[in-house]
Amino acid sequence: MNKADEFLVTRIRPLIKRRLGYSEKKMFGGICFFINGNMCVGPWKGSLIVRLDKSQHDATQAELHVQPMDITGKVMKGWARIEPDGIQSDEQLQAWIDRAVRFVHTLPAKG
After folding, report:
1. pLDDT above 90 as % of the chain
2. Quick one: which of 6, 64, 72, 97 is 20 to 30 A from 88 by CA?
3. What is the dihedral of CA 10, 73, 52, 14, to 10 degrees?
């Protein structure tokens, strides 16, 4: 995990760890944060990846500092990558985490 991702994990953890159903796992060479067994948010090369409603994908992608989530060469609908400029303040980071948590709470819990 690079230093930017390590720093982002230290910012994310206190904002999500008290959420109902919280857990974290090592994935993609870093740490991802889960709610009720569903991946929710995580760092990716200095950016924040967030899980959001697929039906809102195009609208989300049109937002400031949002890029497609593309780890494998294919855009992952239902995910967005928030550039570092979009999560500079704790308020910005909290807002993206809150959006992802709200969405993930609509999904069926996983074992």
Report:
1. 91
2. 72
3. 0
